[in-house]
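Field guide to reading this record: the first block holds the primary sequence, the second block holds the structure written as discrete tokens, and the final block holds curator observations. Each block starts with its own label. This record concerns Ribosome-binding factor A, catalogued under organism Buchnera aphidicola.

BLOCK 1 — SEQUENCE
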Amino acid sequence: MEKSFSRSSKIAQELQKNIAIIIQCLLKDPRFRIIITISEVIVSKDLSYAQVFISFLEINNNVSIEKLLTLLNKASGYIRKLLCKKLKLRIIPNIVFYYDDSFIKGNRISLLLNKLTKKTLFNKG
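BLOCK 2 — STRUCTURE
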């Protein structure tokens, strides 16, 4: 019988949950006082690397997305250290943060589809 979840996917879920808690509660940098959502974590098969995809609910005018990604990637060693204390794993993966703009793209597509359906409804009537 085949497993429904692999070990790496379970670890990815735990990493996603714990990294979100660490970013929201334990990072003291005032530039992280925005809502950061972790949309997905992809862990390599050997559990040595983790790609963390994040999105922001609202961006401050004085801090850009690139700057926040740079800050998070610089803090990844500290985040990894905190993960060592929380998770009972032999190997804690190296973390690399990436910006996930799929929500913005999806929202834009949804707005375009709504405009198209409104145009077709008004043109038929």
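BLOCK 3 — OBSERVATIONS
The chain has four helices and three strands.
The chain has one domain: 7-124.
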